[in-house]
Amino acid sequence: MRSSNPVFSRRGFSRDNGTAGFNAAPQAGAPAAGANPYAQGTAANPYATNPYAQQDTQYGAPQAPARSGVMTIDDVVTRTAMTLGTVVLTAALSWALLPVDEANLGKSYGIAIGAALVAFVLAMVQAFKRKASPALILAYAAFEGVFLGVISSTVSTYISPGTVMQAVMGTMCVFAGVLIAYKMRWIRVTRRFYGFVMAAAVGFVLLMMVNLLFSVFGGGDGLGFRSGGLGILFGVIGIILGACFLALDFKQVEDGINFGAPREESWLAAFGLTLTLVWIYLEMLRLLSILNGND
User: Fold this and answer.
1) CB within 8 A of 135, min separation 6: which ones?
2) Residue 107 and residue 204: Cα distance in Å, rounded?
3) DSSP letter assigned to residue 70
4) How many CB atoms lie within 10 A of CB 247?
5) How far apart are CA 52 and CA 39, in angstroms?
6) What are the C-alpha distances in Å from 1 to residues 14, 20, 263, 292?
7) 55, CA 20 to 30 Å: which among 13, 17, 75, 212?
8) Which residues contact residue 76 at a Cβ distance below 8 angstroms, ignoring those fewer than 6 apart?
9) Is-contact 154 284, C-beta < 8 A?
10) Burial 82-112 (b: 16+ CB within 10 A, else e)
């Protein structure tokens, strides 16, 4: 199963590291291929080509690789904390150092847009690299934080001082809720689930791009997808899509741990989770800005 997250969707985790990669057998204690519901394609289970379940049987029964050098949940948590911590730190600094009063709003906005473009380029470079680059990932997090800091400061100044904290708390609640639902198996990541999320995401992004074009060339809010009743509806849809992305990312991380992905791949997991959480935060901030602005 491949995640819809752009970091994961190109190839899944790296399989270039010998027995530590996904072409190797599961590590000791991980479910065997026959016990893994994603290991074999049958009439009841369509995952015949799951790259995480393939094993080399040329030399007999698969042997469990050494546990050293493979990704663990602690690795993922640590790298994710480092990446998100960088986002939060640079967001706080940009909030404090880039004022958004009437005299400086244009300059601060220009810096924020430039930082967002740099973050986008860095994200695309990392997404297409074969291996994780911690420096690239942390640089992305730093520039993304600058953008988020200015946007958040603007919302807090001109819409409602409590909106940013509400968006942060809302993002944390979505993350916790999806994690609990995934661990309890209330959410099952299947091929149908994946296909639905991808189709919905493509449609959502295309609509937002059309709306942006209309707003750039026609002025105002374009087709109205980001204000009023339609804005509220699309804000809720964006948050739901972000929650679905989280479920797909959790599945990807779980498979990586169970089947012995190399430890450095935990940086990719952290990067992907950060992208998804930034998406949810921005959609949450936009939705709450509409709601609070209508008060």
Assistant:
1) none
2) 31
3) B
4) 23
5) 8
6) 14, 19, 20, 39
7) 75
8) 253, 257, 266, 269, 270, 273
9) no
10) bbbebbeebbeebbeebebeeeebeebeebb
Residues 6 or more apart whose CB falls under 8 angstroms from that of 290 comprise: 226, 227, 228, 231, 232, 235
User: In terms of C-beta density within 10 A (0-12 exposed, 13-18 middle, 19 or more buried), how is residue 218 classed?
Assistant: exposed
User: How far apart (Å, rounded) are the C-alpha atoms in residues 276 and 191?
Assistant: 20
* Distance separating alpha carbons of residues 94 and 111, to the nearest angstrom: 10
Helix, strand or coil for residue 262? strand
Q: 70 forms bridges with which residues in the sheet?
A: 262
CA–CA separation, 45 and 37 (whole Å) = 7
Evaluate if pTM is beyond 0.90: no
Cα distance between residue 287 and residue 234, in whole Å: 8
Give the whole-angstrom CA distance, residue 198 versus residue 181: 20
pLDDT in tens, the chain (295 residues): 444 444 444 434 444 443 333 333 344 444 444 444 444 444 444 434 444 444 444 434 444 444 568 899 999 999 999 999 999 999 999 999 999 988 888 899 999 999 999 999 999 999 888 788 999 999 999 999 999 999 999 999 988 888 999 999 999 999 999 999 999 999 988 889 988 998 998 888 888 888 778 776 766 666 666 777 788 898 899 999 999 999 999 998 998 898 888 988 899 999 999 999 999 999 999 999 988 876 5
Instruction: Provide CB contacts within 8 A for 240, sequence distance 6+.
Output: none
